[in-house]
Input
Amino acid sequence: MRYPAIWTTEKHSEPRAAPLGEPLTTDREANFQASLGWSAFFADQLDEADGDLVPRRIAEVHRSRLSVTSLEGIVRLGISHQVNTSEYAVGDWVMVDPDGDRLMRRLERRTLLQRRTEGRQTHQLGAANVDTLLIVTSCNADFNVARLERYMALANQADTTPVIVLTKADMAPDAADYEAQAKALQRDLPVIVLNAKTHDAAQALAPWCGFGQTLALIGSSGVGKSTLVNTLAGLSGESSQETGDIRERDAKGRHTTTARSLHAMEGGGWVIDTPGMRTLHVSDVAEGIDQVFSEITELAEHCRFRDCTHAHEPGCAVQAAVKAGTLPAERLARWRVLLDENDKNTPKLTGPRGNKVFQKKR
Output
């Protein structure tokens, strides 16, 4: 893996990370860890037992192996046969025995993107310790406000910053209309319109790509996520992520990214590419939904009844806003769909007191 020159100690002579202790004593190693996002949050989790270990960040997760990034490039970890790799996510920080690169333990995550797959009680881990989630869609038939709201609820719940990225703007005669629709989806939502293949794309996303920052990309197949990763990371040739075209009739693409991976960005941060995901079943994201639809939750405080369903009750401030034209009826309808789906898919605590168990609604 090629690392940007920004990691040299000459570029960052001032301390940028929490102390790492032995054996991470060189400025070069400490600066490298800082570029990866190492901070006091992780350093505070270390104890005397970690004295001979080094922190590493997971770059790849496969069924039977884990790999981390280091100054030497991607290194495969030695793991016990008892380790379940599905419990690890790209972006995780782990403590490693440098003698043999053996995995010892995982540090607590600052943020975690995850989803509960349909029919399963457990979560599928997406990416860990992400600062910004780039929600990528294109200015064509792929653009779907209901799906974007789902992605934003996921980002909000994970306490990451959602940014809508509209690609293929150069091929859309009405890109400004797509931008306006996207900006209306959440208060103060950043929306960036770009051509993922140009260097201008990296400049447009520069505020979220700096030293120590981590991005993750999410969106349907064919919208340009891998192309954007290649642009941000300066990848080309054999080192680049494979890209694919979309079908013109419905703007659907084929899966070219089959696994999550961590890449260095030329701006000094890191980006995690993810496989295309057209369907996202929401669960465990009630707070994230409230943030997406903040205008509804704020109106609800002025309803006559505390348990108002905003459907037929007298004195409903939400329905009054719909009638006044300040709240689109379709926006309220999408809020209901997400809220109902989240309630249905989120396991509930049930059972005798002191013996609570999770049970999924049927």
Q: What stands out?
A: The longest strand covers residues 54-61. Residues 329-345 form the longest helix (17 residues). Confidence is low (pLDDT under 50) at residues 1-23, 237-258, 354-362.
